[in-house]
Amino acid sequence: MAKFVLAGRADCPYYAKAELLADYLQKNLPDFRIHKITQHPDIWEEWLKDLCKKNRWSHNKSPIIWRELLDRGGKGLLLGGYNEFLEHAQLYYGVTSSMTTELMKRVAQENLGTHIEKELEKESLKGLVNPLQVWITSASSLACYHLIPILTSGEVFGPQMEISINLFDNKHTEEKLISHKQEAEDLASPCLQSVSICTQAEEAFHGAHVIIILDDHVDKEINSLEDCIRSRAPLCQLYGSLIEKNAHNFAKIIVGGKTFVNLKTALLMKYAPTFAHNIIAVALGVEGQAKAALARKLKITPSCIKDVIIWGNISGNNYVDLRKAKVYRYESAIWGPPHYSRPVLSLLFDREWVNREFVVSLKTLTATGRQFGGMLAAHSIATTLKYWCHGSPPGEIVSLGVLSEETDLNQEDVKTTLPTKNDHQERRKVSDDYKDLFTHLMPDDEKDLILSDGESVE
């Protein structure tokens, strides 16, 4: 099987003559196949330069013809231009072309017109599709690198939902953004319509349906914790104003990461009040760390543990509640069907470990951010977003940072982590019988908010 690729400038007369000869050979020879590529004259030279650089060829004219040794997309063997192809056809197949110069020019103009029509048709078809606009801040981070493949897999928004990813970061990270963009395009996901880069703040969040706020870059000149907290306010104020100005009316804003998560969520709610009830903080990372610690102790996998609840500040003063936690598929003398579960606390006979070592290890992880890498952050954000869009597993409780109401905590406008159940984009809080916990947990968030406003805390 002889497979050739014929590529050329759309208005090239020699491409038109080579195309006619190739069509004749394909029609009359059973094992001859031709694949044709036309490029607009304005982009032909750049396209040819990139092609030759990729395949280590030397060619600078239209058309260019190569033979594929495997299937299309495999390593090719350069044949040359029009003259080499004509010579090849005459020597191997005894066929030549007698097309006149006048006819070559006329066909070349028809080819250009046809090429332009096809490109316009493609653009019009793209205009009919309204993809989900997903914006990611601090997109040069490792968390974004791991998050993009999950978003484009179809698991989060659904296999039929097309998305357009917009990578937003400062100008100094443009090289990394370009790298992320190229790798995202290399995924060739059917759900991904486009990937774009934004380094201009005034253009951020334009038409955004989903906004993912990742950890921003830490200024190395900031030494104290108080200064670090205060430094978050201007950026959140900028994000809030841009969200109010540019985002879609029903945009979902999700705040993830490992530093000042509750604080950033509270500031965004303050500076983007229109979207306050559509801003949430991701707590599944801390919840996952707690499940992993329990799983190591019980010698099971973390997926077998459900309903571990995180209260309070996600990246600060929090409380891991195991009173409703359950274990499924636990190997012991008691076995049951897949839906059978047992309370975690009934299986943890070492209460000293629960009250001391377990608590200390989780507080250390929260305080230092150790082991909270890009992969954990990405999966936590993607899972939370999936639950928000499609609902959490039936009957399962997940932790989520949301805007509390007066009925929750006897205190309005507190941003804290609460146990919730996501039911088709509606969150139902299940915080009854827990209000006594918050007298201990709230001062942490309040202190951060006071500092972010530039005031001092006695």
Automatic annotation (TrEMBL):
One of its GO terms (molecular function) is malate dehydrogenase activity. Coiled coil: none annotated. Keywords: NAD, Oxidoreductase, Tricarboxylic acid cycle. The keyword Secreted does not apply. Transmembrane segments: none annotated. InterPro entries: Lactate_DH/Glyco_Ohase_4_C (IPR015955), Malate_DH_type2 (IPR010945), NAD(P)-bd_dom_sf (IPR036291). Gene3D superfamilies: Lactate dehydrogenase/glycoside hydrolase, family 4, C-terminal, NAD(P)-binding Rossmann-like Domain. GO terms for biological process: malate metabolic process; tricarboxylic acid cycle. The keyword Oxidoreductase applies. Belongs to the LDH/MDH superfamily. MDH type 2 family. This is Putative malate dehydrogenase 1B. The lineage of its organism: Eukaryota, Metazoa, Chordata, Craniata, Vertebrata.
